[in-house]
Amino acid sequence: MDAKEYLAKTSKELDAPVRRYIKDELPSDLIAAARQYPYAGGKRMRPAMAVAAAGAVGGDKSKAVPLAVAVEYIHNFTLVHDDFMDGDEKRRGMTAIHIAYNVPTAILAGDALFAKAFQIIADLDIPAERMRLVLQYVSQAVWDLARGQQMDVNNEGRIVTEEEYIETIRLKTSVLFAAAAAGGAIAGGADDATVKALHSYAMALGLGFQIYDDYLGVAGDPSKTGKSVGNDIRKGKCTVMVTHAVNSIKDPKVLAELKSILGDQKASEEQVFRVRRILEDAGSIAYGRKLAEKKVKEAISFLDVLPPSEEKDFMVALARYAIDREV
Amino acid sequence: MDAKEYLAKTSKELDAPVRRYIKDELPSDLIAAARQYPYAGGKRMRPAMAVAAAGAVGGDKSKAVPLAVAVEYIHNFTLVHDDFMDGDEKRRGMTAIHIAYNVPTAILAGDALFAKAFQIIADLDIPAERMRLVLQYVSQAVWDLARGQQMDVNNEGRIVTEEEYIETIRLKTSVLFAAAAAGGAIAGGADDATVKALHSYAMALGLGFQIYDDYLGVAGDPSKTGKSVGNDIRKGKCTVMVTHAVNSIKDPKVLAELKSILGDQKASEEQVFRVRRILEDAGSIAYGRKLAEKKVKEAISFLDVLPPSEEKDFMVALARYAIDREV
Q: How far is A129 from chain B (nearest CA, A)?
């Protein structure tokens, strides 16, 4: 089974657990708003990773299912708040919560999902000392997520260094992947060294995943990604490709041209095409893809500590899928 | 020492611990925003209650200090989000975060304080099984807080029943008081029955405190409370006094007059005075004060399980202070 099929299967298996923890309570509008994003599906990569990690370390995968749900709620809590902050109107084919309901309900629904995740962690059916470890990883991840999102806000419209950009996506994307993998391994009974290896795997995978996402944003097929190639360019998103170009282009005229188009919300299709060509000529698009590949290779190497298993195969396949997809 | 002096002393003692957990990290604007409210002081009733509870059950108060900070961060996280949702511009004499910085920073600073609270709980220096209990109380409280705030949003401009109002303030105010007291008792090594008694004490005290706050809002001296008597009336806040009046006024003309002025943001000083007179005539103001007194008496009775101690005295005094203050 390839990673996509395995993900589809685990996402389906999580349908019931994801619906288990938010009971019918008052006020019903808050409950409905809190349920909307997690119930609507999505790739559910983070929870799949938590469950696979528990199995890959030889543990009982069912012990990691509630944790998987908690991690998915946390991911969705950030989406609810993000959609409001970014002014995004759609999510998973539905109207975003701050529009379908109102702004206070979106903020409170996010807060509620966040709280529910920690209620679930408190009740994990594992020894309290292990639960404490899970809590340390997950609460650290949520703290880091807020930092990453603030960096993202602050980076807007600026040319940042590659280190700054990598640190932002590490905090915004990788830490929750990593907490999911580490938490699943802890729930599965792994020793410290194995937990750390799975944490490192997911951290590197998160970076590779995000860098490849940025690559697709510029070099991908818009008819498949559903995102116009101009999106990131018009927003002036400072990806590793942009930082590479800025640092390697010697011709001041070309550099000035690149900088003048980046972040111009009204840039024409022609100008967007020109930026793509400039990035290509500077070797920056290839650089981005290769960096994603490097991170994924690094990620896979961390899995060497694991004995063979279906779950290990999935974790390797998931890493390869991260840099071998069109969507 | 009376409750006010004791509170002032414990609030001061918490100055250093409150500054201990949010380290200098990037991005510095998020860190500064997250620090603003908790560093600015305030009554710090919730953390004082956590520390007192640990001492009152014969435990080591220092074990409850990090928990006290966590509870204060949670309280402040809700203030940061609330101030934005309510459009409030000032807090503790400073410009609210959503104005001093911007809306995304306020949302993320709230989220960050929330996350930090759970990091602190994970690291509590108590046995993991006890930490699990604390986590259960606190995470349940935060879930309930979101429900209470949503109810508050939904209640705006409506006449709700006394039960609905009590449920709203139970969730909005009491649950975090109760989690602080229960958590402090758990950190102090109390048995289940004592933990539950302290939880019930703080729950009833929270209700008494809020009902008396509403009483002060109508019957208090504006030169002392700093709140115009018209505030709650013009907002149409449906306190227990209002529900009492609506249910006991027999004259349809008087009832219609009351309803027409309540929630009228442009109500004149004369109209506000008229509402106060109507509430007084219906016995509703006295009803509100007596209900607050009843809740506080109930709260104090839960402390019977405790042996004499300075901390028990404070907890009794705090309850009495809740209904014997002008501010």
A: 5
- pLDDT tops 80 at residue A225: no
- Residue B215's Cβ-side half-sphere holds a number of Cα atoms within 13 Å equal to 23
Contacting residues for A105 by C-beta, under 8 A, at least 6 apart: A29, A30, A33, A97, A98, B150, B153
Kindly identify which residue of chain B lies nearest to residue A116, measuring between CA atoms: B143
User: B243 and B160 in contact (C-beta within 8 Å)?
Assistant: yes
CB contact under 8 A, A27 and B107: no
Q: Give the CA count within 13 Å in the CB-facing half-sphere of A323.
A: 23
Q: What is the per-residue pLDDT across A185-200, written as a single tens digit (0 to 9) for each?
A: 999 999 999 999 999 9
Q: Hey, how many other C-beta atoms are within 10 angstroms of the C-beta on A163?
A: 9
B94 strand-pairing partners: B91
pTM: 0.96
Tell me the shortest Cα–Cα distance from A158 to chain B, in angstroms. Answer: 15
A139 to A45, A84, B112, B296: CA distances (angstroms): 19, 23, 10, 36
Tell me, what's the pLDDT at B200?
Answer: 98
Q: Output the CATH code of domain B3-322.
A: 1.10.600.10
* Position A228 pLDDT exceeds 80: no
Strands (DSSP E) contained in A96-177 are: none
What chain B residue is nearest to A83 in terms of C-alpha separation?
B104
What value does the mean pLDDT of chain A take? 95
Q: Is the Cβ pair B111, A116 closer than 8 Å?
A: no
Q: Which residue of B has its CA nearest to A142?
A: B115
pLDDT for B1: 65
The residue among B226 and B256 whose pLDDT is bigger is B256
